[in-house]
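Revision sheet: structure tokens.
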Amino acid sequence: DSVGAMVSFATTTPFQFSDVRLSDFNGYGVSCPGDANGTVEFAISGGIEPYSVLWQDGATGNSRSNLTAGPYAAFIQDNEGCQDTFAVEITSPDSIRFDLEIGPASCQGNEDGSIAVSNISGGVGGFDFSLGDGFQPENLFPGLIGGTYTIAVMDANACEVELDVEITQPTDFIFDLGPDVTLDAFGIISLDIQTNRMPQSFTWSPAIGLSCLDCLNPDINVTASTVYRVKAVDEFGCSVEDEIIVLVDIDRSIDPAMAFTPNGDDNNDLFIVHGDSTIDIIENIEIYNRSGAMVFKQESFPVNDPAYGWDGTFNGQPLNTQLLIYFIEVVYVDGKTKIFSGEISLIR
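Predicted:
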């Protein structure tokens, strides 16, 4: 000073915090909301070493790990009791949120349902999507049948959010023609179709023998066994097919006379093939004597028609009383044939 006295003292610089290193998950301190993977580390200079570092939660030291998102503060004190505060914020991305656009399946079992993810918010951009079989960048999942699915959305930090979603579909379209049926030739049967909703259209095959093609329970009148198939379409455009076998029970018989007397008295003068309406045509008749010679032949003629009866002559000459053998080939209304044989007595 002015009289030459000298006093010495020491000065200290304020604390400085450098080399601050925070965890960085694409700009956030933790990777996902609720995660505890944040870290912080910093260096201290200034003041008088050694330093003590005490965090608000009681932890010590200038580095921290396993931190969740939030504010953190550390109180710094040097060897001289000087103090300062270090504060830092560990940030977190917002929770991933999204909307789903659901396309229902048109029919039971149809693979035309869809799920699309839209209006994504939160998370870290660069999203991938999964329906349980690996992730993809495409947000649309087409070609799905009805049922429950788990959709997952994952961001660039591998944060993942799952949501269960249901693709709806109409209930099974039931259209049952019932069990196979048997009826007599020229008989009529009414179908009793069981269905859970009224079809919008029918397609029958074949159409023959059906009383109507656009009614729910048509009558069937056929002369031959037939397999009927139907395709029905409901209001959703769903189709179902069924079939029914209609068996026609035909009595395959004829009624030829056991004997005839071609003597010109107009009583039993002709050998005529008799039968019912299930016979379409007599395809062929052949009559032989006991020696094996054919004495009569006629082809393609109707049953019960005297115009095609045999008068007991051969080459224009009447045959004597004798026992003859006949072979008759019959075609029925269902197209099937049968050959009959037997004996006929010609009596003069």
